[in-house]
Amino acid sequence: MISVESLSAKTSRDLAQMAKNKGVPGWHSMRKTQLVNALIKLAKDKAQQKKRKQAKSDPASPLISAKVSNKSKTAPMESAVAKKIRLQNVEQEQLRDIAFRSACSEAPTSDRIVLIVRDSFWMQAYWEVTKATIARVKVALGPNWHKSRPVLRLLRIKSRGNTNSFEELAQEIPIHGGASNWFINVKDSPSTYRIAVGYLLPGEGDTERFHMIAKSNEVLTPSSNAETDESWADITNDVEKYYSLSGGYEPNIVSHQLRSVLEEKSGQALHTTAFQNIPSLTRFSRTLNFDVDAHIVVHGSTDPFANVTIAGVPVEIESDGSFAVRMELPNKRQVLPVIASSRDGTQRQTTVLAIERNTKVLEAMNRDLSDL
Q: Is the pTM higher than 0.70?
């Protein structure tokens, strides 16, 4: 039986593997508590489905028998072609509906879309659309709803030579239900952009109308000549996750080049799996070398022009305001004040991290070779 207690006793990696195997959507971005809740919900749903199947297969159930009897009298048999068309329509409806849905996050109360610059050539769009908004769009579009297509419209902002500016369509990107992130490639940096999410539907003649739901913030992409390593910041903050997503732990596709690049960018060694770490003298070595250590990564974001210290030591801040510091983790309790101060010194915020490491080394067990 799956329970909260049994799942909580597992590691985050084991829970992520379980969620992956069971087809939990969004498992790769979930934390441990979210993984536990998602797996519990999945188990409950499957148990309910099993009960319904048992009830349907039980001829002694008067309620089921009555339903089957009434259905057989009133509803004609659905042909294979009709069933195929119905399922295709259901699938198209799901792809058309871009309302935010997640088993681990609360439903949003308002619509929003943001545009984030990753580097000179890539941007990331993230959006949330409420179910109530989709219901209003269906009413507004009427019969055209079934002909509409959800899209992102990337708008390039240009100046007319004075204080006025205008937006021109740079890209039109088809999206689908179930997605809330999209990476967008641009080639004319530096440029100013914003993005809108909505539905494209037929207009008069060959023209198409755009029913907009939300429009994002403006962003300015950096010059392509600028040397930057910011695109690695989020990857190196959780390098194990991205190594796993890229197939690093799969025995058939493991790449030493991928491993070396991620270790170089992150400045930390990646763990090896069992099939990669087979010692050559396991049965004949009389000494088993074994060493375990741990480090911590303190990361966050602030104003790019602010000053940040961790335990009194200044921290380097990236141009987007992010910072990350890898620190030793001694075997004791320590208190780390993280302080951010504005450049002029008029504002200051403090976050105190209390971290404790309690390492226990158990007594080694030795057995004679004749016992193996």
A: no
- Which whole-number Å values give the CA distances from 361 to 240, 290, 358, in the listed order? 25, 11, 10
In a domain, 81, yes or no: no
Q: Any idea what the CATH number is for the domain that residue 295 is in?
A: 2.60.40.10
Q: What is the pLDDT along the chain (372 residues), one digit of tens a residue?
A: 677 778 888 888 888 888 888 888 888 888 888 888 888 888 888 888 888 877 766 655 555 555 555 555 555 677 888 888 878 888 888 889 999 877 666 788 899 999 888 878 888 899 999 999 999 999 998 888 988 999 999 999 887 555 567 889 999 999 998 888 899 999 888 889 999 999 998 876 667 889 999 999 988 888 876 555 555 666 666 777 766 666 666 665 556 666 777 777 667 776 654 434 434 333 444 567 778 888 888 999 999 999 999 988 999 998 888 999 888 888 888 899 999 999 888 899 999 999 998 888 887 777 665 555
Q: Which SS3 state, helix, strand or coil, does residue 371 take?
A: helix
User: Are residues 216 and 119 part of one domain?
Assistant: yes
Rounded CA gap, 161 and 37, in Å?
55
